[in-house]
């Protein structure tokens, strides 16, 4: 029997992934005249935004739609666009820059060779002198091991696979985790009339607008211009620990014109709040920490302990004439009971949505390049292995490295280094 013919392609540089990081990298590679291909595992462009639920709106305002060579110039810079418009934005950008994308091409192995790298895919093999890892931060949905102990009668979904309340079975829903996805999905379920239980994690609340601007305006300003005034806290080398690269973002939403997600307000609307999910008890009940009052206070204090201080410091240092901050009214609301145990059957809970984040997955790398958090060891996106680069990861160089406005400068630096190799 004849062996199947396996195609083999060659190019100077392969970019793994055609989301925002891959497209930004492609733009700069083209500007520098570097031959390249983007290998995208999905059958269509649009990146991880295609995995968001039906009612999702981009969490960052329109002014953040700023990939290399383009910026938002519409009439509503502080408005927010829905999921499908976000996907269309990326598809239009890829067309505008003529990105050389190979769709439905998942990279399964990257091996070093004397000349560079061999990349194995489901559609053949590629040889390249350089490789840029641009597959983003939403790679492997994380679900706690204790989930395996839940009854098979309960539908379990990671937020990655949640689409709408209508696709869930009738009954109450437990949402585990209060990052941005957990808060927004809870609101989606509540708006649909569902009974919702919510397990509270430690992600901080933040005001959608602060001192006359969307809070993301100040986050970008401190990231980009803060170092000019000695405010360096949002640069990666200022993190107290490498684990800080994976801290959750503030509880914000782009829905309804943009707003903060306030956990006590969700409770007043009928959401049953619980502490952090701990695991399963012997009698099949779910167990939560018994610290809800302290946890809510910690969530509400988080903004004042970090982002508020940085924004205020930047405003003072830059001499910006910004209005004084609004002082929120004290809110001491607490549920009459929360409980540290939850019997899903007794509460009529038929679905559990795990909003427990993602882990990095670079298992395709045939190189000893990852640290204990599966993060490639690098300096400004240039890894320890010659010719291998990374773009679009959380805190690659600064807090906003994985965002639309932050990925372009990192890609520019990486491609400059890459082009110098020849």
What attributes does this structure have?
23 strands; 422 residues; seven-stranded mixed sheet; 2 domains; alpha/beta; disordered N terminus; FAD/NAD(P)-binding domain; five-stranded parallel sheet
Low-pLDDT runs of 5+ residues are: 1-5
Counting structural domains, the number is 2
Oligomer: single chain
Provide mean pLDDT, rounded: 95
How large a portion of the residues is in β-strands, by DSSP E? 15-25%
The biggest beta sheet is recorded as: 7 strands, mixed
Helical segment tally?
Answer: 8
- Number of DSSP-assigned strands: 23
**Global structural class:** alpha/beta
C-alpha geometry: globular
- The value of Rg in angstroms is 23 Å
Distance between the termini: 42 Å
Helix content: 10-25%
Describe the structure.
- Strands 1, 2, 3, 4, 5, 6 and 23 form a seven-stranded mixed β-sheet that branches. Strands 8-19-9-10-15 form a five-stranded parallel β-sheet. Strands 16-17-18 form a three-stranded antiparallel β-sheet, with no helix packed on it.
- It is 23% helix and 21% strand.
- Helix 4 (215-225) packs across helix 7 (307-318).
- The protein has helices spanning 20-31, 83-96, 180-191, 215-225, 263-268, 292-305, 307-318, 404-421, and strands spanning 8-16, 36-39, 101-102, 107-113, 116-121, 124-133, 140-141, 155-158, 172-176, 196-199, 209-210, 213-214, 252-253, 259-260, 272-274, 277-280, 286-288, 341-342, 349-354, 358-359, 378-379, 382-383, 388-390.
- It has two domains: 8-139 and 360-421, FAD/NAD(P)-binding domain (3-Layer(bba) Sandwich); 141-355, no CATH class.
- The chain is globular.
- The relative contact order is 0.18.
- It has 422 residues and is an alpha/beta fold.
